[in-house]
Specification:
This protein is α/β, with parallel strands linked by helices. It is built from eleven helices and ten strands. The protein has a four-stranded parallel β-sheet with strand order 1-2-3-9. Strands 5-4-6-7 form a four-stranded parallel β-sheet, with helices on both faces. A two-stranded antiparallel ribbon has the order 8-10. The chain starts with a helix and ends with a helix.
Length: about 325
Amino acid sequence: MSSEWRTQMIQNMQDLNAELMMTGLTNDLVIESADTDAQGQIQQIQNLVNKGVNGIVLNPGDVTALNTTLEEVVAGGVPVVSIDQAICAEGVINVVIDQKEWAKISMQWLADELGGKGDVVLIEGFPGHPANEARMAGVQEVLDQYPDIKVVGRDTGKWDQATGQQVMSNFLASLPNIDGVWTQDGMATGALLAVQTANPEKWPIMVGEQRASYLQLWNEILQTRPDFTSIGVVNPPGVATSGMRVLLELLQGRTIDPAQLAGDCPTPNTLFVPIPGVVTSDNFAEAYEMVKDLPASYTGDGMINAEEAAAFFQ
């Protein structure tokens, strides 16, 4: 998970908790946050339980490795909401955007821009990570409809801009004809910087991200390449505050409306929140105006409010 996204996610949670504390709905927000493997996250979960928290909002780093621990936590009376990534642990409620659909939006755009044919490279996040696997499944669903689009390179950028830039530089050096680039948020600015630096005779069509850094670079490139086009689909750090609002409803004893639950788990346990928006050339000027003076790390955002959270419940 890119550190900028997580930093904004935590700030969102702290801001919401400050509001909730003023109304008496919460007492404290205890945060365990670090780049860690599944075993490290299990330790963090146990730390939270030992501190006596009433509920847990979790951004899981593995689709299955945490399940046994989480099921024990829920059985012990501590509700758990998984945000950003959907997992199938019994009793856990996912509050997420549809990551597969999120990826399909930009991959379909790329397929359309390519006219349904060409050589593309894929820069993914961490293989095995729940969000990455859902996204790559969405990409493949689109690719299955376009047999004339060939994947000539695929590598991991680890949701890191510098790594994404290096991966894209390697692709440009080793592949003679790249027509399109599909990548995810946290790496797209790096990938575009690699293309800008190499300045090949024919620039590939680039999938981007809804981050200030990417939109600012997009605007810079338009000054010399007015035909440049891209796309950025919002992956909101605010999904964590959406999860907090759902958790607060659970802690007040409310029951989720079963008709609201969806997802691919054997027992549906996912509440989908909206993908907040998409930036293309059609609305780029407006989107850039909103972020032109913001820090490069700022990510397009969105979150549900208290009324929207309550609507998930009976």
